[in-house]
Amino acid sequence: MGGIRIAHNAWVLVGDGEKALFLRNEGEPFAPNLKVIQVLEHENPPNREQATDAPGRQTDALGPHSSSMEYTDWHIIEKERFAKTLAEALYKAVQAKKYRDLVLVAPPPTLGALRKVLHGDVVACISAEIDKTLTGHSVDQIEKNLSEKA
Question: Which parts of the sequence are annotated with region: Disordered (predicted)?
Fold first, then answer.
């Protein structure tokens, strides 16, 4: 049978660095019927709109040369902050016993940022991780995609 197993009443987090859908499976494990619990969106304009100045320069110790500093990518920093917001929401929900099983669906950078900040209680509930961007899809399309995922 294709697809992943999503337990009845399991939560599915479909997220990226700017939007997250918290869904609950009201269907069967291999025939999910996902219902939206909550939607979180985080405004994160491109880096060029967040940065104000060019990076600074540092004078080298020997000679008249100077080196430029590395650019700060504010867009990535905001995505990591959003991952912390998602991790906090998942932790509060698991503490309130709102779910026992969790499926994470996100692109690899978001999954990596989440892994760094998830509490151990949340990690213990994760039954599957899918490295895919599905935040722009409808709930029906997400269900279909998860049902077909091998």
Answer: 46-65
